[in-house]
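Supplementary Note 3. Input sequence used for the single-chain structure prediction.
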Amino acid sequence: MRLPTLLVVIPAFALGGCGAPRVLSEAGISPKRVGVVSIVGETATLNYRGFTKFGHEQEYLPARSWKLDEKLESQLVSALAAHRASVFVALQVDRDALLREYDSRTLWPDWRVVLPKVVEVGRAHDVEAVLVATPGVFDANYGKKEPISGFGIKAQGAGGEHPFWVTAYLGVRLRLVDVKSGRVVAERLAATDPDASIWSTPVAPSMRLDPKGWKTNFEEVTPAQVALLAHSFEAMTDVVLQNAQRIFGLR
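The predicted structure, written as discrete structure tokens, is reproduced below.
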């Protein structure tokens, strides 16, 4: 007697947990281990704009001791933990070596120079991909087409003791590097509103600073101002975390 053949059809989605890799929505790869590196927090740039072209001032404030990069790396690892197909780890790297290649004070540093170093870091730490955060350039400083980059504050005044307004800003370029191919497979610019000031768009509370707490001359920065700058950085990183989540299909 011939027994009837039973055909069992298993839906494709039911096989999702059977070793099928999850492909990233933007990157097109599915690394199991992803290293996270930030070289954003080396300096804070203080920008003051007067009413005439002779009233402009820019100062670079060393910020390495504030541990901003370590904090951002930790935040990124936590924000991406929901992507269960990958494990994210903050890599212990020689930031000085990376920054020697990638001059964060240069508005348009050459990313191609630092890319091989990132690949070396990935191989040394046995990860398949590296998510790198570097200073990101964006436009419309003070409502003008004047690019600014990375982390800092911008202020405007007319030569008085205090500026009219002071806002913090953050611009971060996120790149996901595939260690095997040595290529950037996903990239996003995460930036706070570059037009934000009391003269234009509403300013987020995390970006607004009390102008009475700042002098027109940025050459002397008090410990209280340093603490305020470090706090502002941490308060603005949501835009970076959200863009990192989009790279990995979490948004």
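The chain has one domain: 31-247. The radius of gyration is 22 Å.
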